[in-house]
Specification:
This protein is of the alpha/beta class and 206 residues long. Helix content is 58%, strand content 12%.
Length: 206
C-alpha cells in the first residue's frame, strides 16, 4: 500500500505524549496523539495502515478497555502497550487479546521502535490477507448458483458424472458449468480450484 502508516499515540500524560510524537516523527513515522480513550474513539479513524501505541491506565476507560472496544468495532489496528503501571495480570490479558508487545516506562528508544515496526509489519500482513480474501470472495460471488454447486462438487473430488447425478442434470451440462467455473476463477485444473478453496478457508479463519 502506497499510503504511509499512521501511529496513534494514546496517553493522558501530555508531556510524554508530545515527546513520543517528536521521537516517532524524528524516526520517520507519521503519528498523531490523543489524551484519552474517549478522545481516540470519538476521532474518525482514517482507513490507512498503522497501529496504536497505548497507555494502560488513564482517566476514564483504560487501555485494555480501548483494546477490547477496537475489537468489538472491527478495528484491526495492532496495539503496543506502553505503561508505567504494568503488572503480570495486565500484561497477560493484553497479550492474550492480541497486543504485539507490552512495554514499561521508561522505555529504550530501540525497544519502542522495534515493537512499533513489528506492529506495522503485522498490520501490513493482515491487510494483505484481507485484500486477498476479498478478491477471492469476489471471484466466487461471480459464480451462478449452479456454477457454485459444480464448484463445490469439483473441490470435493467428485467426477462430472457424480456431480451430474447429484444435481440431476446432464453430464455435458456439468462440463459446461465446469468450464465457466474454471474461466471465472482463472484456474487451469481441479487442483487449482481446490487450492483456491483452501486458501479462502484459511484466510477467513479468525
Amino acid at each position: 500500500m502506497s499510503e504511509a502508516p499512521l501511529i496513534h499515540v494514546v496517553d493522558d500524560d501530555e508531556s510524554l505524549r508530545r515527546g513520543l510524537l517528536r521521537l516517532l516523527r524524528a524516526a520517520g513515522f507519521e503519528a498523531c496523539g490523543y489524551g484519552s480513550t474517549g478522545e481516540f474513539l470519538l476521532h474518525p479513524l482514517p482507513d490507512r495502515p498503522g497501529c496504536v501505541l497505548l497507555d494502560l491506565l488513564m482517566p476514564g476507560p483504560s487501555g485494555l478497555e480501548l483494546q477490547a472496544a477496537l475489537r468489538q468495532r472491527g478495528v484491526a489496528l495492532p496495539v503496543v502497550f506502553l505503561t508505567g503501571h504494568g503488572d503480570v495480570a495486565s500484561s497477560v490479558r493484553a497479550m492474550q487479546a492480541g497486543a504485539v508487545d507490552f512495554l514499561t516506562k521508561p522505555v529504550q528508544r530501540h525497544a519502542l521502535l522495534e515493537a512499533l515496526r513489528r506492529a506495522l509489519d503485522r498490520d501490513a500482513r493482515e491487510r494483505a490477507a484481507r485484500a486477498e480474501a476479498d478478491e477471492l470472495r469476489g471471484r466466487l460471488a461471480s459464480l451462478t448458483t449452479r456454477e457454485r454447486e459444480v464448484f463445490d462438487g469439483i473441490v470435493s473430488g467428485k467426477l462430472n458424472k457424480q456431480i451430474a447425478d447429484e444435481l440431476e442434470m446432464a453430464e455435458r451440462t456439468v462440463k459446461l458449468h465446469r468450464a465457466r467455473v474454471m474461466e471465472k476463477l482463472s484456474a487451469g485444473s481441479p487442483a487449482e480450484l481446490g487450492r483456491l478453496a483452501e486458501r479462502l478457508r484459511l484466510l477467513s479463519e479468525p
